[in-house]
Amino acid sequence: MSSAFRLQQYLNDLLKNAGHERITQEQLSALVAAAAEKPAVSQTQVHRAIKHLSHGNADTQLIRRKYEDIKKKDLCPHLDRVLVLLSRRTAGDSWVTGTSSSSAAPPSTDAPTPAPAAAPAPAPAVPETRSRSQVDQLAVSELREALKREVGSPQPTVAAAATLSARLQQQQGGAPRQSSPYPVPDWLAERPYMTRGLVTAGPPADRLAPALAPLGDLPIATQEATVIEDVLFCLSGVDGEYISVSQGDCRIDGTIDPALQETVRQISPLFAHFATVMAFAEESTFVPGQVVQALGAALRSHVKNYLVLIAQLETQHRAGELTMQRLWFYLQPSLRTMEILADVADTVFQHGLQSGQILSLLHDRCLTGDERTQQLCLHLVQAAAVPYMRILESWIYKGSISDPYREFLVEDNEVSGRERLNIDYSDDYWEKRYTIAPHKIPTFLAKVADKLLRTGKYLNVIRQCDENLRCPEAPTLVYSPRERHYVDAIDRAYAYSSKTLLRLLMDAKDLMGRLRSVKHYYLMDQGDFIVQFMDLCEPELQKNISDILPTKLENLLDLALRTSAAKSDPYKDDLRPELLGYDLNTQMMKIHSIETYEEKEHWAPAEHLAISGLQAFTFGSAVTWPVSLVLNRKALACYQMMFRHLFYCKHVERQLCQLWVSNKVVKQFADGGDRGYAPAFALRQRMLTSVQNLLYYMTSEVVEPSWQNFIAKMQQVTNVDEVLQLHNDLLNGCMRDCMLTRPELLRTVSRLLTVCVTFVSFLQSPEPEEASDSVTFAASVAEMDAQFTSVLLTLLDNISDFGRENYNAKLISILYRLDFNGFYTEQLEQRAGARSHSASSQSGLL
Q: Smallest Cα–Cα separation from 199: which of 240, 227, 154, 143?
């Protein structure tokens, strides 16, 4: 089925519901052809046509719904014009020409020809016109009478009146408004005459159709008065009779006196400036943004003064006191003003600027250009910055953001609520909830943006703690080209917020006491507690992780806390035992995200790892807000990793010491009876010395000096950000110097400890009874000796390379502790020589 046939069916159905006759296919074809030649119609004309079709015999809403259904099917590109022609047909007009069937032929577009003087034509009966309003008809009638009085000619002919009527009919269609980058209502385009700005109706070529008489035939004084009236219309956004503005292009009747035309051309830029400013002022009302709306309100205040000037000029014109030269003189100041305003509005409109971008634009123009530009832009930026400054005041004085359109430079991401602060104490609340949006920072606040962020964050934390918050100095912030006016207020608010929060953390929440308590347990600063705890829990922790009872560990931990020096710690009840499903190596490998072939075993699922409680055990702590800002989840994870490393080293040291105690029984043997155990005892002592030196290095040469340095710097902090930075530096430095951040060093230390544990288990096995068993025992000791020496040499070699690459003096010092008598120096030199020889051989082959 063709689209023309379907269109005929749908239109006939619409006409049937409206109570009108059907149309044939030939009539529809002629109707569509005529509609294609007609100018575009507005939505107002379409609604009027629908109402006219119903004319009380049908439901208007039903006809409108059926028309919308036809329009959605997209069967005809000129459906609006077809509907208007159909409505004229039902009124008895010719549905092809759009004129009455009883009227004369269509009027000519040529200039009207006056009737001969000897036989003056009777008063013309102007055919029915569909003008925009009765006011337009009255204005045309007054203009016709004025022209008759001036030229003394007979009354215009019917053809001339019909030409004028047709031109008024063509002016009913409205041209679409310029597309806006902002979301504006559709009715701004559908109902263009509701705007106070410039409206161009109909095609530009038809705007200046021939009038009743050429204006150039009139006297100069009459021309000047008529041109002034048209200019005043154009200055108000309404096209005149002889002067028209379409898309910013001023079109002037060519018959006007050249001098008057030149003056109009000098004034004409003001037409476009007013249209640009008025369009922005109206559309800014619907833009979601307080800064844009405030700028639009400021522009409307200038437009109001401009329209007052136009009204005063019109009053002078009515009194006959206004000439073109005087009009040009009065308009020159406004021309410069509107040019500046239009340039600002056009820049904001074309680029779709928002919030801080608009303020940056106006601020930059306040510092450049002539004096008039600076004054105007200063007034605009002061008005546009009022809502932005209100948000800023709420942020730096109360720590809250009231920003419904997300225009402020600080964005509230709301990653976690207040009710979860004591449960989920990650650093997301501090690091991610409030962030800076760089594109929303005004130029005049760029230098203090970071300080603004921290000021509000500090106050927000204080508010979350239900503390009384009263900023002692809270002056109203107003934009000023001199930044010190509001920068001083920001500095005072920052000083108050930082001191208040720091005092809250240090005094009310006892941050340093919390950190000392964490150091006692996680960094094994409380020696008697660690010994007491390991004596109680070591037998339980030596079991497989699946066989350990967590409740039993909690009871043993509580017993160790109550029977040691830790009983005086006010925060001991916040400590709890935890069993992780992976060992330290697996945890560090996941952090470093290393997926080499040698480390695939570290990525095995946690349930497949057969580890003991000693490898899985760590402490956990209950941290309350706002201390959790410092002791967040990331910081506690670092403490736990260092504790697991030190705890396992301490366990190996205790195992070797217990082995030394149990080996004293060989002293009861006869002379020479302990000779077979000498290599084992020597290896045990080397292992014990290495582990003790390693443990001493981490506790006495890394942790304790770093902690003392941290305490000294904490005495000089002025804000919480410095506290966070110092604490992070403490953790990062300790983990780096304890060899936790280098996977190869950590793996080597783990293998060294594993060899020691294996050796302890071997010596604690039953004693050999036969000679062959003695030989096997000696061979096993020798094998373990060689294995331990190889791993220790690898560790020393890696430490030496890493220390030279990173200039780590602390790490280098462990070389002298592990090789204090130069026992391994010769072997290290041999390894280095072999490595250099291998490298030179490969380079020679290449």
A: 240
